[in-house]
Structures are given as structure tokens and as C-alpha cells.
Specification:
Elements (H helix, E strand, L loop, with lengths): L1 H25 L1 H4 L1 H7 L4 H17 L1 H4 L2 H24 L4 H18 L4 H26 L6 H41 L8 H9 L6 H15 L1
Helix pairs in contact: 1-3, 1-4, 1-6, 4-6, 6-7, 6-11, 7-8, 7-9, 8-9, 9-11
Amino acid sequence: MVWQAALLVGTSAVSLPLWCQWGARDIARWIGQEAAHTLRRVPSNAWWVTIVASILIAGLTPDRVHDAPWAIMTAMLLSLVVALARLDLACRLLPDALTMMLMTLGLLSTVILDHIDVMDSLIGGLTGYAGLWCLRWAAQRWRAHEGLGRGDLFMTAGMGTWLGWQMLPVALLIASATALIGTMLLRAITRPPPTAEHSDAIGARWWHQEIPFGPALGVGLCLAWWHLG
């Protein structure tokens, strides 16, 4: 088991900087080359999240970690999710290159691991995209606000290809709960002081600030994948 766990941790650690560099290069046209260059570096907290999560997965799935293909695909998934979360937190963007890679690896995993049917994977991808597109359309129509970015739609489609349509609602439920809890904690911590000058205007900006959904989607995907494992 030791070398399989080392394979999982090593693969995730090696692939993380590659995903970050590729994603930063893809979004350079939106944020500029100079800003994108800073995003190519992997912060220490991203390293720690990747390594600790890899060790936890290896410890919680001792039966599956013996399967080298499963360990490699899980490591690629984990590092890709961390890279997407890191970029979404930093600049509120999910690079198309990484979300498309998430979809591609999801389809590839169904062929290599045979954990779900390929048709279920395809339906999951289409269902994930269509479902969040409907939510985005409804938000635009009734609140004149997108609510969800295009990257969230593509990332959800990628989740569907990894999990299949049957498990996708569970992952989205976990992601929604994670986003809700995270938003409540963030706003509790960063609430502006009531005595601040122009507190009403400050409070309005604080209440309507955008919260990235990518990290929550990543949590839902990883927990659902661990359950499948």
C-alpha cells in the first residue's frame, strides 16, 4: 500500500503546478500577462491542501489505492480541482482549458476504471451543464444578475463525466451546502463595523460581493468521488 499511496501523493504534487501554469496561461487574455504570471506560482496553502487530501484519500480508501490506475486518476482529479479552486479564488475565473480537461479526464476515467457506464458519464456531463444553465438563465431573467459564470457550467459538466448522472445531484448538494456555509462564515468574519462611515453603502457592497462557486464544486466532486471509490 505504501508505494501506491506514494504514487497518489506524488502524481498530485507533480501535476498541480502544471495545471496552475496551464490555467494561468489560458486566462491571461482576460487579466493580462503580468497578473497571469503571478498565478502560475503555486501558493503554499494549495500544496498543503493537495498533499493532505491525497494522504487522507489514500488512508480512507485502502482497498482502492492498491489499484494504480485509480490512484493516478484520483491524483489527477485532486490536483486539477485544487488548481481550479486556486484560480477561481484569486481572480473569479475558471479557465476553459482546465474545465475542458476535467471533462476529458472524466470520460477517460470511465474507460480506464470502468466505474460507471460511458453513457452515464455523457448524460451526467450534459445534465450538469444544462441544469446550471437553466439556473443561470433564471437568475438573469428574474434578478438581472448571472449568479453563475460560464466556468461553473463547464466545471459542473466535468463533474458529471466523472460521477455520472446518478451521483451528480449528491455532489451538487454537497457543493451548495459547502458554498452556503463558507459564505456565512466569510460574511460573519468580514462584516463591516456598524459605526463605519457610510455603513449602509459599505454593507450593500459587502452583501452583494461575488463568492466563487468553483471551490465548493470541487469539494462536492471530491467527496462524491471518494464515496464512489
